[in-house]
């Protein structure tokens, strides 16, 4: 048996990325500059958005979006419990309260009906998260927001280049946040992008991301820059340096290629795992929608095996397969229970998804033979631990 370890993720970095970074190093301009602005322009064009603002993380993109809408102490923000903590923590930066919501039954994304039940006079915004790259029901989210006067900030950390009903994610809501973390569909190592079609949001966010100082202050050390600047807001330090901007541009050129390969792997996984009755494949995108396949999340069918999810992941590791769990719902973490009083049982759909789910390797550099090893290893674990039917 081949026990060479297949990691959960492996970045697709080639000669183009090395050359792009080298050009920046040779230019001697290392912080935010021309390379980052070129990345912003290319990303905006790729998405189809009017403005794209590069920042140093997906969390920073959410933070910048929250600043743009004027989130304040005492406000409430609706968001799913089934997400990474970054989605919720940005509300706390502004003294706002993250109001957790359940997932749709049998899935991972936020349930708009459950969210609506949690709206109060303090509710300011809703943050839908496209878990794994499956687009949320943005029609339901938009209707909810319109009915109650809410701002929508999409957490699209997993969703490049997903689409909803023929429109690319990033062109639907007023504000969208993308991530370029090391495991994402394109990567800058650390980084993110806030996109918007609204000029007033872009103007404020562009100022806020660099200490709240005037927009061209980044080039005050260049020949065409000026030493004079004005502080217009109490801003943040969220800008993306040129080294990472150049890396992003090189990756963006390959985004469609990466997407095709992820989709191929997802199709092979889906075909094989749909035939194993003990396994539940991930939800597929709805009509006219495209899944980005950032994650391929399998679930164990309740009671079908003699071992649980944690043991299943360990069995895969013994066979040289790196798997992960996305996500531990926020209401099960000490901070959210101690601070906001959430308890186990509050969000049953999210808890059910978490208890049974694990994510398999899916990335462009995953070779065909590795895909087959992943499939074979999962099938072996199921075969070795399935419950025998009672005669």
Characterise the protein shown here:
The chain has 391 residues and is of the alpha/beta class. The protein folds into 2 domains: 15-254, Aspartate Aminotransferase, domain 2, CATH 3.40.640; 256-385, Alpha-Beta Complex (Aspartate Aminotransferase, domain 1), CATH 3.90.1150. 38% of the residues lie in helices and 13% in strands. A 7-stranded mixed sheet has the order 1-9-8-5-4-2-3, sandwiched between helices. The chain has a 3-stranded antiparallel sheet with strand order 10-11-12. It has a two-stranded antiparallel ribbon with strand order 6-7. α6 links the parallel β4 (123-126) and β5. α3 (58-68) packs across α7 (199-208). The longest helix is centred in the C-terminal third of the chain and has 19 residues, at 255-273. The protein is globular and about 75 Å long. 48% of the residues are buried.
Tell me the layout of helices and strands.
Layout: H1 15-27, H2 34-47, E1 51-55, H3 58-68, E2 76-80, H4 85-93, E3 97-101, H5 112-117, E4 123-126, H6 138-148, E5 151-155, E6 163-164, E7 167-168, E8 175-179, E9 192-196, H7 199-208, H8 242-252, H9 255-273, E10 279-280, E11 296-300, H10 309-318, H11 334-340, H12 348-356, E12 357-360, H13 368-385
Parallel strand pairs: 2-3, 2-4, 4-5, 5-8
Antiparallel strand pairs: 1-9, 6-7, 8-9, 10-11, 11-12
Helix pairs in contact: 1-8, 2-8, 3-4, 3-7, 9-13
């Amino acid at each position: 048996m081949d026990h060479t370890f297949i990691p959960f993720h492996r970045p697709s970095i080639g000669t183009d990325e090395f050359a792009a970074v080298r050009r920046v190093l040779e230019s001697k301009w290392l912080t935010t500059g021309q390379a980052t602005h070129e990345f912003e322009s290319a990303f905006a064009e790729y998405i189809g958005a009017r403005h794209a603002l590069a920042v140093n993380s997906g969390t920073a993109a959410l933070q910048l979006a929250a600043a743009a809408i004027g989130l304040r102490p005492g406000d409430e923000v609706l968001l799913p419990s089934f997400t990474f903590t970054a989605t919720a923590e940005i509300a706390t930066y502004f003294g706002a309260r993250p109001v957790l919501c359940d997932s749709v039954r049998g899935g991972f994304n936020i349930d708009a009906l459950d969210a609506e039940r949690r709206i109060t006079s303090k509710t300011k915004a809703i943050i839908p998260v496209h878990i794994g790259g499956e687009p949320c029901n943005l029609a339901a989210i938009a209707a909810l927001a319109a009915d109650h006067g809410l701002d929508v900030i999409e957490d699209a950390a997993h969703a490049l280049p997903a689409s909803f009903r023929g429109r690319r994610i990033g062109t639907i809501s007023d504000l969208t946040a993308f991530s370029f973390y090391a495991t994402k569909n394109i990567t800058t190592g650390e980084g993110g992008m806030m996109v918007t079609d609204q000029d007033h949001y872009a103007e404020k966010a562009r100022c806020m991301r660099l200490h709240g100082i005037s927009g061209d202050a980044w080039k005050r050390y260049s020949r065409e820059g000026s030493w004079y600047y004005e502080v217009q807001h109490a801003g943040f330090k969220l800008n993306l340096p040129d080294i990472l901007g150049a890396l992003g541009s090189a990756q963006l050129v390959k985004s469609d290629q990466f997407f095709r390969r992820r989709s191929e792997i997802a199709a092979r996984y889906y075909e094989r795992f749909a035939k194993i009755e003990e396994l539940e494949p991930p939800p597929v995108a709805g009509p006219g929608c495209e899944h980005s396949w950032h994650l391929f999340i399998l679930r164990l069918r309740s009671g079908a095996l003699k071992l649980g999810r944690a043991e299943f992941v360990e069995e895969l590791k013994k066979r040289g397969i790196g798997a992960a769990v996305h996500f531990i719902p926020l209401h099960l973490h000490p901070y959210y229970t101690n601070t906001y009083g959430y308890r186990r049982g509050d969000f049953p759909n999210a808890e059910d998804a978490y208890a049974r789910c694990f994510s398999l390797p899916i990335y462009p550099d995953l070779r065909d033979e590795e895909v087959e090893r992943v499939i074979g290893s999962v099938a072996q674990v199921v075969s070795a631990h399935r419950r025998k039917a009672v005669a």
